[in-house]
Amino acid sequence: MPTEAAPEETPSKIIERPSPLTGLARSGLALAAAAVFLGREFLESDGPVTATPMLLGGIAAVIALFGGISGIITWKTTTFVADEAEFRVERNFINRSSTRVDYTKVQSVDIGQPFIARLLGLAKVHIDVGGAGGVDLAYLRKARAETLREDLIARMRHARSDHRDGAEEPDATTGQEDADESVVVKVPARNLLLGTLVSGGATFSLIIAVTFVVLSVFADTPVTLVAGVIAVGGWLWSQTGRNWGFTMTRRGESLRITRGLLSTTAQGLRPERIQAVAVRQDLLQRLTGLYQVTVTVLGYGDPTSGDDASTNAVVLPYGTWEEVLTVLRAFWSDVDLADIEPNGQPERARWLTPVTFHTHTWGIGRDVMVAQHGLFTQVRSIVPHRRMQSASIEQGPLQRRLRLAGILVHTTDGPVTLQLKHLDEGVARMVFLDQLERARLARLAVE
Amino acid sequence: MPHVDQRDFPPARRSATVPVDRAGHEDLFAPPGATWQRLSPNYLKMKLLLIPLTWGLISAALTVVSFLWAPRWVAWSVVALAFVWIGWRLWRAPRVYRRWGFAERDEDVYVTNGLWFRTLQCVPYGRMQLVEVTSGPIEQRFGLASVQMVTSSTAGTVSIPGLDATAAAALRDRLIARGEQQQAGI
Predict the structure, then answer these.
(1) For residue A108, what are the domain limits?
(2) Domain-ending residue, one of A163, A198, A219
(3) Region Disordered: which residues (chain A) (predicted)?
């Protein structure tokens, strides 16, 4: 029976386990709920025992049982090693897994204490390694969790300084407070309203509003009217109210964004944390010539999920092309989109993109890669070479018949994706290999 | 030349970095300057066992349902379809298996897979945030494990299934070791 690289390879390896109380911590909340429901039922019932609390209590008890069992199993089957050489978590239940984290990649280490765990003096350690996923260790004794966190952070610092003298650790927070603050871009109310109202989104909400009005007139129920007003109003608010008075200023190396009508929010933005940029314009916005700019920034999380995060990712609510270029220059001073020559698709790609054929272009500059797609909503994605994570060539059966292939450039999770849809096979291969080389050189140049 | 919005992208000199010809055309999915390492033959054996098992169970359930609540001809065609489907999957399995490959190079790993939808992905060692070796109960029976390479892009996360369990752990350690040497800030 082959096993993983045995932990006992060196005598100094200390193999640790989570706390034996994990089972209790897992089931604690459900256990408490069961106790409350059932206990109250037995203590306070003067009449006949009612079914609902019993049922709820029963369900909670079953959940507690499962939580407890899974917690005990977790405790029994999880081991971890944290020493100078490596950090590794082994799970050995039905699925066997062994996760090893590169110390240099640790972004942050958080300690979480849910209520029950706090009562038991336990804590959960979450190790964040950047965009996709991380490692959870649940539950450790509070003290051990804290020492583990300190160890991990110390080792992360140590590992990083071994390779480079903190080049990637810009301390933008200090020393630049006294520098002058200059306005990069300010969005006037006219542009904000124009961009919001003359847009595909506005047309869509107008259609919804009309539908609701018609419905409420015919069905004679004002409720639907109210719902319609709320829906449309909410959309309008998120577009204009939150971005009212949008101002981007620069102070030293870091950018600052303030926005909001009722409550002004200020947000710091360090250009070196920007992974990718998307410039968006829908069909109606072409009339007004306004664009929206969103960014993928490390640490903003997934902007598509939360409301605040999705606003945060917008770094220019609506602006002219000139303003878009100004914002881009503020991010990357040496990038000039005008230098990047757009390439189209080969003629035979018409078979696969009959309507949108002209809208797919791509180009490669000295520092960035650009791709543009979309007829109704035109999206231009820009990814600097040095921010590329990985890349792939994709080819479906139809593309193979037409000798076409696509390229995906992966960046940190966020609102921006970069894809070259249909390229000639040979060109795709060349672009792919060249791009990997460019990304490699760009990474080296930084170090 | 396709139409391009000239206002946004003024015409400029042809970019020297992008050769747009088919000269030196090579296999789209070949590893550059290396040969593919293949998966363990046990992976194919496992697939050949799992395909009839899982699809058999699914189609058995469907068959029972359709014999109870649907006309006879529907039920029989479900049976026929199930056989055709399982046969098709079994016939394809070796070819799918042969499409899998990975190549460790000095600074990156190439992974290729897919029969109809083919991909070739390259992940630099410096970009791997964590590397995971997993092995389910059936995989353990066959002495297999898969290696998952997690970067900070969910879309770019790849996993190599069906490696020999010891080879998988060794691969994981090699990947991490090289990643630590060549780490790159995100």
Answers:
(1) 7-163
(2) A163
(3) 159-180
φ, ψ of residue B53 in degrees (nearest 5): -65, -55
Q: Is A326 exposed, middle or buried (0-12, 13-18, 19+ CB in 10 A)?
A: middle
Using an 8 Å CB-CB cutoff, list chain A residues near B135. 95-97
Q: Are residues B110 and B87 in the same domain?
A: no
Residue of A nearest to B163 (CA): A2
Same domain, B136 and B165: yes
* Cβ <8 Å between B124 and A101: no
Is there a single domain that holds both residue B135 and residue B80? no
ipTM of the complex: 0.80
The answer to whether residues A259 and A175 touch, using CB atoms and an 8 Å cutoff, is: no
Q: How many domains does chain A have?
A: 3
> Which residues are A277's β-sheet partners?
A295, A382
One digit per residue, the tens of pLDDT, for chain B of length 186 reads 344 333 333 333 333 333 333 434 457 888 887 789 999 999 999 999 999 999 999 999 999 998 888 888 888 999 999 999 999 999 999 999 999 999 999 889 999 999 999 999 999 998 888 888 999 899 999 999 999 998 888 888 899 999 999 999 999 989 888 887 776 665
Contact A129 B152 (CB under 8 A): yes
Integer Cα distance of A209 and A215 in angstroms: 10
CB contact under 8 A, B128 and A105: yes
Task: Calculate how close chain B gets to A240, using CA atoms only, in Å.
Answer: 26
- Among B2, B124, B145, whose Cβ lies nearest the Cβ of A440? B124
Say how many domains are in chain B. Answer: 2
pTM of the model: 0.77
Are B9 and A447 in contact (CB < 8 Å)? no
Containing structural domain, residue B52: 41-96
Q: Is A307 exposed, middle or buried (0-12, 13-18, 19+ CB in 10 A)?
A: exposed
Q: Which residues of A touch B186 (CB under 8 A)?
A: 107, 130-131, 275, 298, 387, 412
